[in-house]
Amino acid sequence: MSNLALPTLYPTRCTACGLCLDACAEGVLALQEGQPVMVQPQACTYCGLCEQVCPSEAVELYYEIVLTPDAGSRTD
Q1: Given 3.30.70.20, 1.10.260.40, 3.10.620.30, 3.40.50.10490, which CATH number is that of 8-60?
Q2: What is the pLDDT of residue 71?
């Protein structure tokens, strides 16, 4: 993950259920003292599974929509 922002973790929302850890095939997340932390942030592929499975919305991914001109657009 080079130019992407890292997921934002909200420890006060986290219930330490561990679902985000199970969903992360890259091993980016871990619970330390009952709080989610990124132990390998460089391995994050921004797949979004951690955010999708979190029942307490303690994980949030930032997405930016970038509009580019369509090279093949029609003008008629």
Answers
A1: 3.30.70.20
A2: 56
